[in-house]
Design a protein that fits this description.
The protein is an alpha+beta fold. It contains 20 helices and 26 strands. The longest helix has 20 residues.
Length: about 700
């Protein structure tokens, strides 16, 4: 934005705030209305002596007009809450649907919010710094904060929302009860520095409107960005039992001539009726607009330092970035950790401490790679967590250390960044590197494929890594996308960890990194926790594009096995302890026991946000020339009674097999195979977390032995 446009937008807003027309200003400074119009449209900038005259008219210092960075015209309109009127067609929204895409879980919040901060990293020569602050308010401190947010004006809206029987109403009712009965409120603040900030107009396209005004607008133009659905920001509001988030942003590019302390608040409530007037749902906390067509709508305002302090939004560094304050923060997982204890039995200090610990754990587990630096390279991210009570430190600021969170994987990535990898593993602590090809298919309407070279790193595992023999996958800003057990490992394999770097994560000089970024990004669901078939992938790329991802991960698994493979023990069956372990991994499978039939020998399973089980099974096939047609069967291992079977929503063939209807046809002559599947939540007799999962292979009806 040039100087003329910068001054023009500033002057236009000051005229609105002072309730003054262009002709009024022109008359008071002794110039024509045309001259003022030229300034507001950016066609001209007033001379120095004219700026002094404008400052005198507005009653501000000359520097306020010349620099447009301090001092604004006081229009006499204090900030207030604007509640969106109900739809004229009678439509009703009982909550923001985007908030239901994720669980109200601080681990999910940490993943989504930190990913967004990484995507907005400003100076690529330094890390984006993210700090989470858990702040519990009680007593007088809580009363002062409620006064600052105009709580008395909001209370009738909260009371109307809390009486509704929908889920959002029940959550709000619980939030109000907790605050009033226990005289406490938990604030969770997310600050980022060296980030873009919420730049742009209040209503038009830009970062500000994408976050504050819109849903499903990600505003991500960089292919390496983690987010692409515009859903991640909804986790901020989903983590608040009061549906309220306050925002203070320092901008990387001036808006209306200013960069510091741009404030706005947003409240997400269900449809409600207050004093006989119906309201649609959301509300905004800001300065009432005076522009034609937007009269009364709350827009952002440039706050003074005292106001920012009262709202607990003071930023401690002038670097660009944004602070999000989640009001009434809660963590479902922390409260569910001990179901035998009621909410009233959990100590307040224990609650915030659990939130603190889960934030540290989530940041380390998901972003250890982004926080890893090389000898000559800086990390992409620095992250920390602290906990306060009424402004005083309760738990000191804790810097998240990638070496402590993931020692082996961090060692592997640092070795790659420093150019200290080897081709083969011959000693403990070494890091082996191989290239893994990813064929990027053509977009629809185009021809030709390109081959990207991803990087695979393998090193020995340490006890602190968690599960051994895993491979983590990532791209772009090095957030962990998926972690999975490497299948078909030889008996007696030494514990290891593997890291697969694709797209830009593979390095600046990786061939066709941009094409790989775009392809893999299109293959990720809103949670960004796997690569596979998505609606976007079907729409953008040629048919069968998802098979390229299966080929890619299969090639990576093969490369891992080649790097860690070792000679088998003399016994064909291997050591007794390993036989028992593999038998336990596979589950019972009574219909297929015996040496002459296929058996499941390894099972990797996880629960997703919908409550569905995602399983990957490794199958041992007996020697023979005939194919096997078998039915994979899932059962819940409940505490009592018969084990009920559940259905599959998806069955995907892996190695040496293909799907035939709802069955699997295993290739003749193959000695091993694999498949993956997802259970159908609608067939679950109980919630999946309340039962174990057993997967069996059963002979398909109508087939012979």
């Amino acid at each position: 934005m040039g100087d003329g446009e910068d001054f023009g937008s500033w002057l236009t807003r000051q005229l609105r705030r002072a309730n003054m027309k262009q002709a009024d200003l022109a008359e008071r400074i002794g110039l024509t209305r045309a001259a003022v119009s030229a300034w507001t449209t950016g066609r001209a900038v007033p001379r120095d002596e004219t700026m002094r005259a404008i400052a005198e008219v507005f009653g501000v210092e000359y520097t306020a007009v010349h620099d447009r960075t301090t001092g604004v015209v006081d229009g006499g309109r204090p900030v207030s809450w604007y509640h969106r009127p109900a739809y004229v067609d009678g439509g009703r929204d009982f909550g923001n649907a985007a908030t239901f895409a994720f669980e109200a879980d601080v681990e999910v919040l940490a993943r989504e919010a930190t990913q967004n901060s990484l995507d907005e990293r400003l100076d690529r020569n330094g890390p984006v710094r993210v700090r989470y602050t858990v702040h519990e308010l009680t007593g007088e401190a809580l009363a002062r904060f409620r006064e600052a947010i105009r709580w008395d004006d909001l209370l009738p809206h909260y009371e109307a929302a809390a009486t509704q029987e929908q889920k959002v109403g029940r959550v709000i009712a619980e939030g109000l009860r907790d605050m009033y009965e226990r005289d406490r409120l938990v604030l969770l603040r997310v600050d980022d520095y060296n980030a873009s900030g919420l730049t742009g107009d209040d209503y038009e396209d830009g970062r500000f409107s994408a976050v504050v005004r819109r849903q499903l607008d990600s505003r991500k133009s960089d292919t390496s960005a983690g987010g692409s659905y515009g859903l991640g920001k909804a986790t901020l509001w989903a983590t608040s039992r009061l549906g309220m988030v306050l925002i203070n942003s320092t901008l990387s590019a001036p808006h209306e001539g200013r960069t510091e302390r741009r404030l706005i608040g947003r409240l997400d409530l269900p449809w409600r009726v207050v004093d006989g007037e119906a309201f649609a749902g959301p509300a905004w906390f800001g300065e009432p607009d005076t522009a034609p067509g937007s009269e009364g709508v709350a827009r952002s305002w440039w706050a003074d330092e005292d106001t920012v302090a009262r709202l607990h939004l003071t930023r401690e560094d002038p670097e660009p970035g944004t602070s999000f304050l989640i009001v009434g923060a809660y963590d479902v997982a922390s409260r569910a950790a001990d179901p035998a204890r009621g909410a009233d039995e959990v100590d307040d200090e224990e609650t915030v401490q659990a939130m603190h610990e889960r934030l540290v754990d989530a940041l380390g587990r998901n972003f250890w790679a982004a926080m890893t630096a090389g000898r000559d390279t800086t990390p992409l991210l620095e992250a920390s967590v602290r906990t306060l009570r009424n402004g005083r430190v309760l738990i000191d600021e804790e810097r998240v250390d990638p070496y402590r969170a993931q020692p082996s994987r961090t060692r592997a990535l640092k070795a790659y960044l420093d150019g200290e990898t080897v081709d083969r593993l011959t000693e403990t602590g070494q890091v082996a590197r191989v290239r893994v090809p990813l064929t990027v298919p053509a977009r629809r309407g185009e021809r030709g494929t390109v081959e990207h070279e991803a990087v695979l790193l393998v090193t020995s595992a340490e006890d602190r890594d968690g599960k051994p023999n895993q491979m983590v996958m990532m791209r772009g800003n090095r957030m962990v996308i998926r972690q999975a057990r490497v299948p078909d490992l030889p008996l007696g394999t030494n514990p290891f960890q593997a890291v697969l770097l694709a797209g830009r994560a593979a390095g600046e000089h990786a061939p066709h990194a941009e094409a790989a970024e775009a392809f893999l990004r299109a293959s990720e669901p809103p949670e960004h926790d796997k690569w596979g078939q998505t609606d976007e992938l079907r729409a953008v790329y040629s048919a069968g594009a998802h098979r390229r991802i299966q080929e890619f991960t299969s090639a990576a698994y093969r490369s891992v096995r080649e790097l860690v493979g070792r000679s088998q023990a003399k016994s064909k069956e291997g050591p007794r302890a390993l036989r028992d372990l593999l038998r336990l991994d596979g589950g019972p499978g009574p219909a297929v026991r015996g040496g002459g039939v296929p058996t499941i020998r390894g099972l990797d399973a996880r629960l997703d946000g919908t409550g569905a089980w995602h399983v990957t099974a490794e199958v041992r096939l007996p020697a023979g020339r005939d194919p096997w047609l078998l039915s994979p069967v899932a059962k819940f291992d409940v505490r009592s009674g018969a084990r009920p079977s559940v259905g599959w929503s998806e069955i995907v063939a892996g190695r040496n097999c293909r799907v035939v209807g709802d069955k699997l046809l295993f290739e003749a002559g193959a000695r091993s195979a694999s498949f993956s599947a997802v259970t159908d939540v609608s067939t679950h007799p109980v919630r999946a977390e309340l039962a174990g999962l057993i997967v069996e292979l059963q002979k398909a009806r109508g087939t012979s032995e």
